[in-house]
């Protein structure tokens, strides 16, 4: 067995890509393909690829990408978005993940990225590195026969237009950007992302059936303000339709657009079940239906995890629910976010500076990540031990400042052939 101290943790080179891709695929039970290597190669210039190497064999993978996160108030905060993390089963429990995380977080801090984010495939892994669950997702399954929507009521789906991939790709990015400007928890989707979403990216798997695309047009301006990508499968039983419809992406700027697109999906001919993943738990989706109980939550889980690296930059970037000040003592074993900070904020902006004043609230960096976008409350977190009230009233003040009217949401589309609850 190789001593873990001699396993090299380093940036990945062009020659490493096939082995790195194979190791990541093994970790996620995905077969190796040359197309998979090409896909990684096409984004390698913008990504930070890290690998663990035992001699010349890749035994661990890690990727981070420069991203932008929308925070309460609408600011775009530069973040390091982490993905494709794996350690070979033959090399677990040797600290390889810890070393890769440490290398990347150090790089993110030095690059001036105040926050790091990831989607955790396994819950227990990332709290030890200072990440806390910052958004959640709900997976809805709609029983069409109970939804009480009449497909003959065309007014319910007014403005919806079926389009091809080319027309969709022209209009969809602008719709998403309008949502990204106002939705806390949202990440940027670049041109490569849209090319993959519409099957136009080089190296996309061939032979994959093209999904269906729809847009919703604003009745006043005629501009697209909603988008829908879905796939369906024709099924019959005893001359009765039993077809499922899988929504792969649904983005709406207005409530009217969201309602029309959902009702369009639910009233599609022959469809008996609609699956809609990765929505905010407080989504209004059920209320767009005639019977809200027809939309059953089949999965509810944490989703985006967040790690604050630069406390003053992160906290001063967002707005707050009430005008107030709060002295926070942030504890961070790695040291990045640690310190005592005076947060002065309100609906119009905020500042965060180091202070010698006595702390009113002590909070671990993991809890700060859960609090940052407004999805959790300081009062709730204090019960679990990572947040401590040092002055009476501090928990209530933190709740009033950090919580938002609607829960943050991290929109995700199902791009590949896999479609299952919680798939990373």
TrEMBL record:
Active site positions: 126 (proton donor)
Domain N-acetyltransferase as annotated: residue spans: 7-156
Family, per entry: Belongs to the acetyltransferase Eis family.
Oligomer and partners: Homohexamer; trimer of dimers.
Species classification: Bacteria, Bacillati, Actinomycetota, Actinomycetes, Kitasatosporales
Organism field: Streptomyces viridiviolaceus
UniProt: acetyl-CoA binding residues: 85-87, 93-98
Protein name: GNAT family N-acetyltransferase
Keyword vocabulary terms for this entry: Acyltransferase, Transferase
PANTHER family, per database record: N-ACETYLTRANSFERASE EIS
Entries under SUPFAM superfamilies matching the protein: Acyl-CoA N-acyltransferases (Nat) (SSF55729), SCP-like (SSF55718)
UniProt keyword Phosphoprotein present: no
HAMAP family: Eis (MF_01812)
């Amino acid at each position: 067995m190789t001593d873990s101290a001699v396993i090299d943790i380093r940036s990945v080179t062009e020659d490493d890509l096939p082995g790195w891709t194979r190791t990541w695929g093994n970790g996620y039970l995905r077969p190796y393909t040359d197309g998979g290597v090409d896909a990684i190669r096409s984004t390698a210039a913008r990504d930070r690829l890290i690998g663990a190497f035992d001699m010349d064999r890749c035994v661990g993978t890690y990727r981070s990408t420069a991203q932008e996160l929308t925070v309460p108030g609408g600011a775009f905060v530069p973040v390091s978005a982490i993905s494709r993390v794996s350690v070979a089963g033959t090399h677990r429990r040797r600290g390889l993940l810890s070393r890769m995380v440490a290398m990347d977080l150090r790089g993110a801090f030095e690059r001036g990225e105040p926050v790091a984010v990831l989607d955790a495939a396994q819950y227990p892994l990332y709290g030890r590195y200072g990440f806390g669950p910052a958004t959640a997702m709900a997976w809805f399954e709609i029983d069409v026969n109970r939804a009480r929507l009449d497909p003959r009521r065309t007014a319910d789906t007014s403005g919806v237009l079926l389009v091809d991939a080319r027309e969709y790709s022209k209009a969809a990015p602008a719709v998403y950007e309008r949502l990204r400007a106002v939705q806390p928890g949202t990440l940027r989707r670049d041109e490569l992302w849209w090319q993959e979403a519409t099957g136009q990216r080089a190296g996309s798997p061939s032979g994959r059936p093209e999904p269906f695309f729809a847009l919703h047009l604003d009745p006043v301006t005629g501009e697209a303000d909603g988008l829908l990508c879905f796939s369906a499968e024709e099924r019959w039983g005893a001359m009765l339709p039993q077809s499922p419809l899988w929504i792969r992406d649904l983005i709406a700027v207005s409530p009217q657009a969201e309602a029309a697109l959902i009702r369009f999906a639910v009233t599609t001919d022959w469809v008996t079940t609609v699956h809609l993943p990765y929505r905010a738990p407080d989504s209004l989706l059920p209320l767009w239906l005639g019977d809200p109980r027809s939309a059953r939550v089949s999965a509810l889980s944490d989703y985006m995890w967040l790690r604050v690296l630069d406390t003053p930059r992160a906290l001063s970037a967002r707005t707050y629910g009430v005008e107030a000040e709060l002295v926070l003592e942030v504890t961070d074993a790695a040291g990045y976010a640690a310190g005592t900070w005076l947060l002065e904020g309100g609906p119009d902006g905020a500042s965060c500076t180091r202070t010698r004043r006595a702390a009113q609230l002590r909070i671990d960096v993991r809890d700060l990540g859960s609090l940052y976008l407004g999805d959790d409350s300081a009062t709730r977190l204090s019960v679990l031990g990572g947040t401590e009230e040092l002055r009476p009233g501090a928990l209530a003040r933190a709740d009033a400042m950090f919580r938002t009217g609607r829960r943050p949401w991290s929109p995700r589309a199902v791009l590949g052939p896999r479609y299952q609850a919680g798939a990373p």
